[in-house]
Design goal:
There is one protein chain. With 303 residues, the protein is of the alpha/beta class. It is built from 8 helices and 13 strands. The two termini are 18 Å apart.
Amino acid sequence: MSQLAIGVDIGGGSIKAGLYNRKGAELIHQVVATPVHLTNDTFLEAVFQSIEPLLHHPGILGIGIGSPGPLDNERGILIESANMPSLKHVPIKEYCNQKFNLPIFYENDANCAALGEAVFGEYKHLSSLLILTLGTGIGGGFVDRGVLFSGYQGNGIEIGHMTAVINGAVCGCGQRGCLETYFSTKGLIARYLEKTNQTLLDAKEFFDQVESKNPIALEILNFGILAMAETVRSAIHLLNPEGVIFVGGITSAWHLFGDRLQQMIRERIFTVLNDRLIIAKGGNLAGSLGAASLVFQGQLNDR
């Protein structure tokens, strides 16, 4: 019998679920819009609607769920979400346990992305991977010899909230100078607005300005690369990974910053680490595949 897993990727605009085999192939998927009138109850009903159509297949081992944090992965509670502010202390795992007679695994979405890259990505042969997700914000995950480091209640490796600039720009978390205020969609757009009083809609518009050699956009990007390089340097010296892999929507512009970022990181770390360290763009695997990886890893850990 095939061994399958359901993965669920919870986002601010939609909930995406997929059914995967152990090779990472998606057999079927379901997308449900996040309710306009969002409450804990309407949200949980949308989670149910995304999963239920996928259950009619034999061999399903469990359900993995990834969402933004902060969260409590031990009790399976979404504590709150910046993109879904009306949600508070949502008992995701308890609800799913009541609805589905399957093991439920729940993690931060960046941790899911990291595990998905480590299990199914191009660099899965490396013994340890630090994964950075570059999108609306910045997330991180660390996998060592196939084991995901979650941290307390699943809130570890929040690299986007490491300080890149002392007393710098205000972050959505309420602190100042976090990395994601300088190298994320929100951060790049906010820095551009500060300097030009012009509002850009998304990261593509910002990188269009970079490609057209807009000097202000270039200045913002170059400082963001510096902030990223310094932060990643600290993470490398702390974790000593074999690979640092960047994923997420902003990596579609990798050709505009990737080479410079790699160079600046390598110039800053211990020389001996460059002998083996791989720095690269990842494959941007589906978030639901990363969540499904929780199930496959959980099965291995139970053996």
